[in-house]
Prior knowledge:
Layout (H helix, E strand, L loop, with lengths): L1 H9 L17 E2 L2 E2 L3 H4 L5 H4 L16 H12 L2 H4 L9 E4 L17 H6 L14 E8 L4 E8 L12 H19 L7 E6 L8 E12 L2 E10 L5 E10 L3 H34 L1
Antiparallel strand pairs: 1-2, 3-4, 4-5, 5-7, 6-9, 7-8, 8-9
The structure holds tetradecanoyl-COA.
Amino acid sequence: MARSVGRIFSGFRCFGSLPFGNPLLKTQCSGVLFRTTSERTLVHVLPKIFPRKPRDFSLPNSSWGKEMMELYNHYNRLSKEATEGQEDHGEEWTRLPSYNRTLKYATGGAYLSKIIQSKARLFTRNIRDPGAAFEYVLFFRQDKLKCVCIFQAGHLLEGPPGHVHGGAIATMIDTVTGTHASLLSAPVMTANLNVNYRSPIPLGSTVLIESILDKEDGRKMYISCRVTSTDGSKLHTEATGNCPQCHFHFCHATLCIVTLLLLLFLHAALFLSISVSNLLRR
Ligand SMILES: CCCCCCCCCCCCCC(=O)SCCNC(=O)CCNC(=O)[C@H](O)C(C)(C)COP(=O)(O)OP(=O)(O)OC[C@H]1O[C@@H](n2cnc3c(N)ncnc32)[C@H](O)[C@@H]1OP(=O)(O)O
C-alpha cells in the first residue's frame, strides 16, 4: 500500500521543492512559481508565449464574478509579495498556485495509455470552459497555519435544482484539507472525511472555505473546515478530516536497502562457494 502511495506521490513534479515539514513556504517550485508583484502582471501573457509552461489555474479569468475578484484582490493584497514595501497589515498570506505533476510513476502508470499519461490532472482543474465548474484559489497563512479557499461554483456542479451538488462541495473540502495537510507536513492521503451539510449553496455563488489544523498526532493531521458565505454570516457546510502522512519515504528506502543487502549477501555467498569448490578441486 505504502509503496503504491509512494509511486503516486513521486509523480508530483514539484513536491520535492515544496516546503513540506517546514511551515515557511519557499517561493519557487519547478514549473510553478510564487510570483512577485511585478511578475504577476506578466502571468496572463507568459503562458501564451511559452505554452510549455504549466498553466496556473488559480489566477483570475473572465468567468470570475465580482465577489470572487474582490476576495481574490483582498487576500492578494495581504499576500507576502504584495505587502513587501507596503504597510504591514498584520497578517501574511501566500497564494498557492495550482500544482502540476507527471503521471509517469503513478500506480499502474506503465499500463496507462499515452493520452491518459499526458492529459490527466487534478480533476477539479480539468474542465476547459472557464467558470463552468470549479473556479477556486487557495491562500495559506503560515503564522496561523490556516488556509482559505475562495470558491465559485459553476453550472456543471448542479445537484438539487439551482444548488451545488454535495459531492462537489465534498470535493472542494477534500482538496482544501488535502492541500493544507500536505503543506504542513508531507504528502498525505485523506483517510477519513466527515461532512455536515448545514445549508445549500446556490449555484454560481462564491463561498469561502476555511481550514484549520485541529491537531497533529504522529503521522495523522486532523483538519477542520467550514464553508460559509463570503461575509461569514451563513454556514453552508462543516467538515473534519484525518489525513495521514504517507510513510513511503521510509518504506521505500528500507525496501531498497534490504534488497541491496540481500543481493550483496547472495553475491558474496556465490563467490565464496565457487572459490571454495575451486580450492577443494585443486
Ligand atoms: C501547492 C500545494 C501542493 C499540494 C499538492 C496536493 C494537492 C492535493 C489536493 C487533492 C487532495 C485529494 C486527497 C484525496 O482525495 S486522497 C484520495 C482519497 N483517499 C484515498 O484513496 C485513501 C485510501 N486509503 C489509503 O490509501 C490508506 O488507508 C491510507 C494511506 C489513508 C492509510 O494507510 P497507511 O498504510 O499509510 O497507514 P495506516 O493504515 O497505518 O493508517 C495510518 C493512520 O491513519 C488511521 N486511519 C486509517 N484509515 C482511517 C480511517 N478511515 N479513519 C480514521 N483513521 C484512519 C490509522 O488508524 C492509522 O492511525 P494510527 O493507528 O497510526 O494511530
